[in-house]
Structures are given as structure tokens and as C-alpha cells.
Amino acid sequence: MSLADLVSIALALIVLLSRAWAPLPAWRIRGIWFWLAGMTLVMTGALLVGRLHTGMWFPWAVFNKYLGWFVLLWYFVLGGWLAVHAYARGLEPFLRAFLWCAALVSAYGIIDFTVRMLGILDLPAGVVTFRHFGFMDNPNAFGLLLAAAAAMQMPFMAAGTLTSRKCHLLIATLILSGLILSFSRSAWFGLAIAVTAMLLMQSLPARRFALAVALATILTVSLVYLLPATLDWFSAFGLSGSAPHKSLADQIVINFVYRTHFAEDVSSLDRVAVGLRALEMWLDRPLFGTGLGSFLWTEIDRGSDTPYIIHNTLLWLLTETGLVGAAVFVGAFIVALRGLCCGLERGRPATRTLQLGMLGMIAVFVGASLGMEVTYQRYFWFLLGGALAVPAAAGPISVRVQHIGKPALRV
Asked: Which of 19, 123, 201, 331 has its CA 20 to 30 Å from the CA of residue 61?
């Protein structure tokens, strides 16, 4: 249960109270409800197949995967709902808060690394390894969030909206610094894909983004290399006591070196082994897959000390939902991409910028999905719903909605 789930319910109540009729969004793509129903049908079928495969209602499959899917649908509809009824007063403030929160959490991690190296104190919910977690259980998930935030920020930075140019530079520097310290190679690769996409769409403020990258690199290199070296120099002259920084600094340096050498990284080798086992399961039941949660259940059943999930989204879909399920999900996102791309030239600046940011975020998720499972990220579905609901011809809030049994009204 995420705190955001409770907040989202309160947000929906606010929308309902402010606009009692509150019609559903007029989505950019036709047949969107059929696609959502199709994906839900795939998940339902996969849950039943998993029950037959494992011989039990595996909690991971029932709660995390199946019921979690309906949570994602809720965020998708809520994002679209908010975009239609309160774009300027709802979605834009959310985007601003999203970027600032990502930057501030990154800043907290940077401060935490610094004070731990200095041996001053241990901040609450600070680092427990050499990687920046950002209050999450998984540094890869945090790295993905930061990469997605950076991609969403690019077109807004180019347009000079949401916040001032100086604030954009500060936000980008802190986000990129946190992304480096997350040591998530999947998130790094995802951002590289997004940068390439933004360059092709001419939506990347190249100079300002390059400056942010340079400042983030200087900041992290100073923290990881220069600060420990300075402390060592003071220690050599007897100007400081013990070196509490050594353990953390050595972890960062050693693990960074290993993570850039694929053949020597245990994590990389484990993921290759997991991928091969997942591929073998899929080839055994290629059409409809082995069912939700079946891979994790198999890992536990074979006595693995560290049971893994599949760290590749497409391979997860193929293994647990089969070719049929993977085709439905891939088809839905191709349709969503088309809906975002259509009308880019005709749309007003406010809505066009959001579309471009969402395209950049999708590029991050596509790239990162090669090394991690990226489907269950609430903010992605919320923003995707918002981007697909903001009409191409709309200003801050001037949209055409169709009431059932009534003529179209302009609100």
C-alpha cells in the first residue's frame, strides 16, 4: 500500500465535489476502453493459468500483480480525469511538485552521503549500501523515477515553463546527481534513449542539459573521489582522526568499477541466468504462458536462497502471459504512442509540451525495461492518462466533453 493510493482517493473526491457531473475524459485514441479491457482480460487469464500451474493462489500473483494492475488502471483514469477538468490547476502543479520532489530527495541523499563520509551523523532513512535508494526499497526503481523525471523535464526546460530557468537547472543537476548515485545501469540506458529521442524531436535544450550533466558529474565525482582524498590528506598530517568515510567511499568506487565490467559483476550474471530460466519456461508454454507469479513461485519451489523476479518487461510478459498477452500489451502501447504523436504540430504549447515529455518518459521505460520490470510504476500511468486525455486543441482548460444522452458542451 502506497501513501499515494490514499492521496489519490482524496484527490478524486475533490474533483467529484468540485464538478459533480465530472464526465470521463475524451481520450486521444479511439477504443481505449477496449484496449484496457483487453489487458485486464489478459491479466485475469494469466492469474487463472498461474493457479493451475502452481496449484495455489500465490499471494505475489494475486495481490502484487493482479490487484496491483487495477491500481495502475485507477491511476491512469485519475490522471486523465484531472487533465480534463483541471489541467492548469491540477496537472501542471503535479508536474512541478513531481520534479521538485525528485530533486529534493536526490539532494537529501547527497547530504546523507556527505555527512556519513565525514562521520558526523547518520541521517534517518539514509543509505544502507553504496547506492542511493531515495526512500525506496529498490535503487533501480529510484533510478528509473529520476530518469523518467529528467525526460519529462526536458521539453518544459526547453520551453521555459513550469518554473524559472535557474530552477530548471538546479532541478536537473540534483536529479542527474541522484541518478548517478543510484548506480542503476538500466535507468542510465533508459535516459540515454530518451535523450536521443528528444534530440530527434528537437525538444532537448542541449546546452542547458549538458551544463546540468557537467554540474552533476562534478558534484558526484567530488563526493566520491575528492572528498575521501581530502580527508585522507588531512589524516596524513594528523589534522583529523579516523577515516569513517573509507568504508562507504571504497564501496562506491569498487562497486562502480565492477558494475561497468559486465563479466565480473555478480548481479549481471545472475540476471542472465534468470533470463535464461524464464526463456525456457516461456518456450515450454509459448502461447498463453505459465501464469502470473509462476516464475517467482518456481524460484522459491526449487529452493533458491535469493529468489528472483524476471528483470525484463517483455520477457516477463512472454513468460507469464504468453505471446497472446505480450501482443495485447505491446499493441496497446503502440496505439498510445500514436495517440501522443498525433497532433503534436497542431497542439497548443501547453499540451504539446506535456505530450513530448510523456514520449520522453516512455523512451526511458522502453530502454530501462531491458534490464528491469517497469510496468508497476504509479506515476507513469498517472501521467500517461493525463497526456492521453488533454485534447490537442485545448488551452490550459478549455475542452470538449461528451455527456451520455446530451449534446456536447464546452466547459
From this structure: 331
